[in-house]
Design brief:
442 residues; alpha/beta; 7-stranded mixed β-sheet; 4-stranded antiparallel β-sheet; 10 helices; 29% helix; 24% strand; globular
Length: 442
């Protein structure tokens, strides 16, 4: 869907509303980044014990940064580093000057804690408003915010950004899917903020209630917080007759608002490079990669006061591309995470690869999970996928056979497939859990 006129609204962003840096030259962007990067390195080194220790161990000093390329000489920051200084040891300002604290769920260990100064919160709201404007949102629009509120940065990040832009916010949060559909019908929002997997759950509920999603008031869905394919974008856009815009962020860097697609192009999120310096590295060796090569995204904050982050390894896989609708570089849609990758009999497998194959089969719904087991010291996968609600009862065996064939032909791995009735796979109320690791369960 390339049209910017949809459901009676012109969603083209006004160029006179852009921040000047959005259309600045690459030389101007680079000069600003170098100035701000020098400040960040000095701020982190002088105020955060971890960075003083890590820089000294690596034999580097903030004064060694003479060009942007010199950043690769500085050490990485990992999630384990943040957990090692739990809860407030990574703060660069006194805790009393930190106005807000967010944290990850901590499902695999201690949560990672992030803090924000007053200026950080203003920056975050400004960048979220910039992202929303790029996505086609406009002041006065009504938005249903279906991201979770709380320690997770999604709900509150989007909320304050929408208010900064001048939108009317309905803070529904995640869950209560029946109510989500009712509010869309009653309040008639122009925009919804939501994870793509949960928007599919809302779609199911529309069908259950006999509601035609294409007749809804929704014009834009700002989707993020999990990897999703362009095939899923097409599924969502066709189902709701709207623009599904990819946005990207992570709490360790700021939350949502690190990058966002522009509705004019929808060709990958533009990174707000005046506040975040991106790199890609080989996830195995840590060596820097050239723009255009697929690797692990690494970010350095350029303006964060409360908690500056230097060369944070995100584990997200993407590549850096030239800017199109804005001067700043784009990142390709995240295809997966290096720690989500399954190695099945020597073959690298990502859930996004299987999702793309599933969405090409009109009999199958985009609801699936992958069970990973170890059988006689070898890993094996089983894909459990739903049929669409209108699928015939006699298609299950054919779907099993066809999907297994396509996975083998396109990915190169043998997979067992179990096709189930619509509504069988558990729905996500936030980030989708695609892989169930059963290798340690007997």
């Amino acid at each position: 869907m390339s049209r910017l006129q949809i459901k009676g609204a012109n969603l083209t962003p006004r160029r006179d509303s852009f921040d000047p840096i959005e259309t600045a030259s690459r030389d101007e962007i680079g000069a600003l980044q170098l100035k701000r990067l020098k400040w960040t390195l000095n701020h982190a080194y002088s105020k955060v014990a971890h960075y003083k220790k890590a820089f000294d161990k690596a034999g580097v000093h903030p004064d060694d940064l003479k060009s942007l390329d010199d950043l690769q000489n500085f050490p990485f920051t990992t999630k384990d580093d943040l957990r090692g200084y739990y809860p407030f040891g990574m703060f660069a300002i006194p805790r009393e000057q930190v106005l807000r604290v967010h944290a990850s769920s901590g499902t695999t260990g201690k949560p990672t804690v992030v803090g924000y100064s007053r200026r950080d919160l203003d920056t975050w709201a400004d960048l979220m408003a910039r992202s929303m404007r790029a996505a086609g949102c406009q002041p006065g629009m009504l938005v249903q915010n279906s991201y979770g509120y709380g320690l997770f940065t999604g709900g509150i990040g989007f909320h304050y950004g929408a208010e900064r832009l001048g939108m009317t916010v309905v803070p529904v949060s995640g869950g209560m899917t029946e109510r989500q559909v009712r509010l869309i019908a009653d309040f008639k929002p122009d925009v919804i903020f939501v994870t793509p997997s949960y928007l599919l759950a809302i779609l199911d509920e529309c069908h259950a209630q006999g509601v035609d999603p294409r007749q809804s008031s929704l014009k834009v869905a700002m989707c993020g917080a999990e990897p999703w394919t362009n095939a899923m974008r097409e599924e969502i856009e066709d189902a709701f007759d709207l623009h599904a815009i990819d946005n990207y962020g992570l709490s360790e860097i700021i939350g949502p608002g690190v990058s966002c697609e522009c509705i004019e192009s929808k060709d990958g999120p533009h990174i707000w490079e005046d506040h975040f310096y991106p790199e890609t590295i080989d996830p195995a060796t840590g060596k820097p990669l050239a723009d255009g090569e697929v690797g692990e995204l690494v970010f350095t904050t350029l303006t964060k006061e409360a908690m500056p982050i230097v060369r944070y390894r995100t584990r997200d896989l993407s590549r850096l591309l030239p800017g199109t609708a804005r001067s700043m570089r784009r990142m390709e849609k995240v295809t997966g995470r290096s720690d989500d990758m399954m190695i099945v009999r020597g073959i690298n497998v990502f859930p996004s690869q299987i999702e793309e194959i599933i969405l090409k089969d009109e009999r199958l719904a985009p609801h699936f999970v992958i069970e990973l087991r170890r059988v006689e010291r070898l890993d094996e996968i089983t894909v459990i996928v739903e049929t669409r609600p209108d699928a015939d009862n006699d298609v299950f065996a054919a779907c099993d056979r066809d999907l297994a064939h396509h996975i083998k032909a396109l990915i190169g791995v043998t997979a067992s497939v179990r096709t189930v009735k619509s509504g069988t796979v558990e729905r996500s109320l936030g980030k989708a859990k695609r892989v169930i690791d059963l290798r340690s369960k007997g």
